Automatic annotation (TrEMBL):
<keyword id="KW-0694">RNA-binding</keyword>
<dbReference type="Pfam" id="PF00312">
    <property type="entry name" value="Ribosomal_S15"/>
</dbReference>
<dbReference type="GO" id="GO:0019843">
    <property type="term" value="F:rRNA binding"/>
</dbReference>
<dbReference type="InterPro" id="IPR005290">
    <property type="entry name" value="Ribosomal_uS15_bac-type"/>
</dbReference>
<dbReference type="InterPro" id="IPR009068">
    <property type="entry name" value="uS15_NS1_RNA-bd_sf"/>
</dbReference>
<keyword id="KW-0687">Ribonucleoprotein</keyword>
<keyword id="KW-0689">Ribosomal protein</keyword>
<comment type="subunit">
    <text>Part of the 30S ribosomal subunit. Forms a bridge to the 50S subunit in the 70S ribosome, contacting the 23S rRNA.</text>
</comment>
<dbReference type="GO" id="GO:0022627">
    <property type="term" value="C:cytosolic small ribosomal subunit"/>
</dbReference>
<dbReference type="GO" id="GO:0006412">
    <property type="term" value="P:translation"/>
</dbReference>
<dbReference type="GO" id="GO:0003735">
    <property type="term" value="F:structural constituent of ribosome"/>
</dbReference>
<keyword id="KW-0699">rRNA-binding</keyword>
<protein>
    <recommendedName>
        <fullName>Small ribosomal subunit protein uS15</fullName>
    </recommendedName>
</protein>
<comment type="function">
    <text>One of the primary rRNA binding proteins, it binds directly to 16S rRNA where it helps nucleate assembly of the platform of the 30S subunit by binding and bridging several RNA helices of the 16S rRNA.</text>
</comment>
<comment type="similarity">
    <text>Belongs to the universal ribosomal protein uS15 family.</text>
</comment>
<dbReference type="InterPro" id="IPR000589">
    <property type="entry name" value="Ribosomal_uS15"/>
</dbReference>
<comment type="function">
    <text>Forms an intersubunit bridge (bridge B4) with the 23S rRNA of the 50S subunit in the ribosome.</text>
</comment>
């Protein structure tokens, strides 16, 4: 992921200017990386090391989403709808 894409995602999902650590931003960044890695694995089916990394990212995103869901269910629903993921 290049710096411009990362800054754009942070600006879109962050609560303020330099918000890089909130759970919503982390979920958005992980979702972008997961989509990119999924496309890579469609071409390189035997790349099991990257597949393991993908599964670890999915687990991390799942934990962030569980945290957001426990904190505020409406914010959780809005985030998964905006990102286009299903849970």
């Amino acid at each position: 992921m290049d710096k411009a894409t990362k800054l754009e995602i942070i600006k879109e999902y962050g609560k303020c200017e330099g918000d890089t650590g909130s759970a919503e931003v982390q979920v958005a960044l992980l979702t972008h990386r997961i989509k990119h890695l999924t496309e890579h694995l469609k071409m390189h089916k035997k790349d099991h090391h990257s597949r393991r990394g993908l599964f670890m990212m999915i687990g991390q995103r799942k934990r962030f989403l569980s945290y957001i869901k426990a904190r505020d269910i409406n914010e959780y629903r809005a985030l998964i709808k905006k990102l286009g993921i299903r849970k």
